[in-house]
Amino acid sequence: MNESILITGANAGLGKETARQLALKAETKRIILACRNPQKAEIAKKELEESTGKQIFEIMIMDVSDAQSVKKAVSELDGEIDAVILNAGGMGGRTPEKMTPSGMNELASVNTLGHVVLVDELIKEGRIKNVVMLASSEAARGIKKMGMMRPALKTNSTEELASILDGTYFGDKLDPMQAYGHVKYVATLWMSSMARKHPSIKFVSMSPGSTSGTSAADNAPTMVKFMFKYIMMPIVLPLRGMVHKVGKGAARYVDAITNNNYQSGGFYASEESKVVGQVVDQFKIYPVMANPEFQDNAHQALHKFIP
Question: How far apart are CA 37 and CA 11, in angstroms?
């Protein structure tokens, strides 16, 4: 039973809708909205209280692209957490290729850095009781119909996986759409490694599917944002039956932390060549991701960037 739940990126889109759905469950007693912007967090908290009639929401100010911000937030947290939903992320803003102080580029940093630090710190302090869920993506195993190629690395070594995180893997020009899928690939491998390192906690990677109403591309470069927000999501993908509403994406998250059919270390998303509909085991689609050595290499690669 998950009475206390922490959700990153909880002030809008999937994070906010997940908080709303979880608040309606009788067993939920506390939802921590981990957000970067205090003003947006307060607005989200008020709206959630009004829409659910529940006074169970708390705010945690935390920037998932900044390791020190995450450590500070955890140090100020009270009590244990039953479930952690690692939802924050996106296309890396207007400068996804820009290097951050961690040594990662901005795209990798916003999707992985703070989440790894958050989980490490919570485990170190014995705060996580039940489950950690990562918002992965079908892009981690490729979405051919959307032009997002399946990651096909040469060795899946620690060094090669680290090169995805600092951007050198992509050469002189980084395509945010392709890089996003590769970063999610590394993060999903890390989750599987964590499942073996910490067998008392359940680690599940779940894609929300292609979901309308998300803010993933809101701060992306102008052309990427325009294509994603005004052409792909409202026109192209609906015509192809390749998008569902935010409520269905959030429902996948809720199911991931409550349904015992999902195995620790597993990666679950839509059927091959699809981005909505039935959720299936992705290791059967892309067996490379089930390789324990590659998973541990991803764990090591991520920790190269964490002081």
Answer: 9
Phi and psi at residue 131, to the nearest 5°: -150, 145
Asked if pLDDT for residue 211 goes beyond 90, the answer is no
What tokens does 114 get? 């703070």
Average pLDDT of the chain?
A: 91
Which stretch of DSSP H or E encloses residue 59?
A: strand 57-61
Percentage of the chain surpassing pLDDT 70? 90
pLDDT at 214 over 70: no
Per-residue pLDDT at 210 = 86
CA distance 136 to 151: 14
Give the number of other Cβ atoms within 10 Å of residue 153's Cβ: 17
Q: Where are the domains of the chain?
A: 4-211+246-303
Q: Which CATH superfamily groups domain 4-211+246-303?
A: NAD(P)-binding Rossmann-like Domain (3.40.50.720)
Angle at 58 between CA 194 and CA 24, to 5 degrees: 85
pLDDT of 240 higher than 90: no
Q: Are 51 and 21 in contact (CB under 8 A)?
A: no
pLDDT value of residue 178 = 92
Structure tokens, 126: 């014995």
List, as one string, the DSSP characters of 154-222: SS--HHHHHHHHHSGGGTT---HHHHHHHHHHHHHHHHHHHHHH-TTSEEEEE---SBTT--TTTTS-H
Q: Please report, as a single letter, which amino acid is at residue 299.
A: H
Nearest of 247, 253, 249 to residue 275 by alpha carbon: 249
